[in-house]
Amino acid sequence: MTETLLSVRDLKVHFPIGKGLLAGAKGVVKAVDGISFDLKPGETLGIVGESGCGKSTLGRAILRLAKPTDGTVVWLGKDFFTLDKASLRKARRELQIIFQDPLASLDPRMTVGAIIARPLKTFHPELSRAQVDARVKEAMAQVGLAPEMMRRYPHEFSGGQCQRIGIARAMILRPKLIVCDEPVSALDVSIQAQIINLLRKLQRELGLSLLFISHNLSVVRHISHRVMVLYLGKVMELSERDAFYANPMHPYSKALISAIPLPDPKAERARERVMLQGDLPSPLNPPKGCRFCTRCPMAQEVCHSTEPPLSPRSDGRLVACHFV
Amino acid sequence: MSDLVAGSPPSLTSSPPVGQSPFKASWRRFSRNKLAVGSMLILALITMACFAGPLFFPYGPQDADFENISAPMNLFSIHPFGTDEFGRDLLLLVLDGGQVSLAVGFFGAFVAVLIGVIYGATAGYVGGRLDNFLMRTVDVLYGIPYFFLVVLINIVVGRTTGGLFVSIVVVLWLTPAVIARGQAVSLRHREFVDAARAGGMTEGQIILHHIVPNSLNVVIVYSSLLVLEVMLTESFLSFLGIGIQPPAASWGSLIDDGAAAMETDLRLLLLPCSFLVVTLFCLNFIADGLRDAFDPNER
Amino acid sequence: MPSTRTSADVAARQAAAPILSARDLTVDFKLEHGWVRAVDGVSFDVRRGEVLGIVGESGSGKSQILMAAMGLTAVNGRCSGSVTLEGQEILNASPEQLDKVRGSAMSMIFQDPMTSLNPYMRVVDQLTEVLVAHQGKSKAEAVDIAVEMLERVRIPDARRRISLYPHEFSGGMRQRVMIAMALLCRPRLLFADEPTTALDVTVQAQILDLLNGLVRELNAAVVIVTHDLGVIARLCDRVIVLYGGRIMEEAAIDALFETPRHPYSQGLLAATPRLDDDTAHDLRTIKGTPRALAGQTAGCPFAPRCDRRIERCTAETPALQRLASGRAAACHLVTS
Q: What is the DSSP letter of B83?
């Protein structure tokens, strides 16, 4: 079935700065500034970018955890942003999220079993205690947690285990899409690998779709089918995974990949590097024209005046650049 | 989990016993504070004495024992603290007065905290204009001298214990409200609140199941100080004569009477005073102990 | 620039005397539940012109090694063993003795520039403070040196920017300021604790490039602590792999990445996702969780997670054995 699961069109999330009774808005941070993409069932889209690119805000806005300023999101054929509160709550069953800081996303006062059970109890208050417990144990087993740990508290677990608890909580309602907001960034390498493998397993066995938000391109490569590169709230490139890593087209994509230090000294020494100058511009004051023009090694005059549209190339990938 | 921060000691990740909620961990810490635990015991004793003690007396606090007027203190007689010039048993007077002081103190604090927390948590969690409005109201109320309020309420309601109770609560709910609001504001941005929202909980459910339990820490700490404040305020007002009115008595009003009789009979002043002072000290140590055990900022 | 990282180069450099020598460094901490050991008998040398990397995950004790050397261990910590800088013992030295060497002979770059720079002081004051205190320069001279160093770390418009406050710099620039501050007195030994972990990837690349150049220029000895194998591969000549407070393996950089000998090193390298590995298969992981700090235990700290362990591994702690060509490994199964 190729029916689209999620369809985002021109999503914008702007935060005004400096409001208050007497002060006017001093400026607007355009965290997400016109992002569009589709997601098919069972597909994982990797969303990458550095700080200020808006990737986290995008993930939250899609779930309506952050207030979108403009744009539409169509979820399973329905306009997600115009849903009333009751329908929105119902829709939440199928859209879940896991967070970057595993411990912070768990209520420290609740037992792990209660945390995982909570979404289930919210939507199915009719279930008996025994039924809820059975589902919780099933979810815990699915993510590799010993069910006996149900009565412990979050602070008694390690970071990787907390992340598994977060995943179990997200999984218990058998959602169709999970937004993963930097889920492995706070974890050690060996644990990161375990969690990535777990997510891969859930992808395979349950046909889950993921929006995998991360700044780590190596990790994204292991889990995504397509990759979307963001810079200052706009899409620079959207591409099939293998094509992207073999041949990144946008200059920013090239710089990103080039910047990752490889765990291989010989390869490191032999590498051609694309070094960017300067730092990220402030999101309060993005450059005119192409957002990337102040740091792009290929920038020309037109880049400073006209914003390049995100347009398809011959192999179907989308790139926003005048010269590629 | 992040690695060891420069210069700070590392922490164990798996040593505490199984299934210990942060709440229980805090209580364990509290129980190791000998001063606080001792104070709780003393306070419990005083409370028991004040509420159960008078039952052992065959007469009431205002009953006069004409045979033993102005009896001196003699711990082995039927009047352990002696009697005053009207023949009233001083121990019974003090215990009876303690009932009012303690009841107003604890109950008053409880009600003030309840109102304050509901008000503040709602303001903090909802935010925006409601928050603005509610908290500016609090700011305005803070500006009104509490004395003025008390007198006003006294005039309106009349000089009753109920009136006193209302005026104290009306003044003292403000601080718990501000504290609860602060807690709610910091909690509403925590990721587990986002997770709850993503899990389909309504705002009301979130306040009830997530915001309030996580605010309890701070609320407990400040409530203990509030009991102190309420007791002091009541004592002060009663001492000034605009609090508890006869025939009811509290430690404050007894101190007032005792101060008047200071030159003739020091006991009338010292006895209620000592009870009040010991109680306040105990409350202070308990509050300190609670703060060391519960306050997340101290950890 | 000629490579300084092959085993042959490493062996050649080993002939010179080390500038920093740690012998049996052990750091214990007193916690609510008793004493725990963060660093367990670590020994290593660093020579001028050499970049030593210490790689490990959380709880490995890597940061505490630097803290101990700099005299920054927390008050509930207890250090034993020996750390000598140019022959002089600095472990557990008095604050006066440490003040003489910190900032001048040895200095440190921290992970988070925002918390290691004083937000209430202008950058110029923070930089010149070090010069005036340690080298007796006049304020005007100090400012000139500071500006020159800021230009060296490629901060544009340095003379004007130096009067700004730290929060007025971006993250990458703050890290450069911290590097400038650390290098001002031309230290002979530089410690770096996760210097690029808090930075964006493109900024990290710039900083790594900068560090690479500066360090070669100054011929300083550098000890870098990180969990990122890519950073190690980029910057280091030799590397120590740490787990549970003990050294698991020590080798020249090429040797470690090509032929890791210790099961933990192998596991770590296999678990690291790369841009060029096979995505059809799951990543090879190390089961279990990184070891939490504990009291002293017998046996190899990695044994619970090692899939090649034998009985001897839990009974007897393996010593760090010297192998051929300057390598070392602490494993009962690695003998040559």
A: B
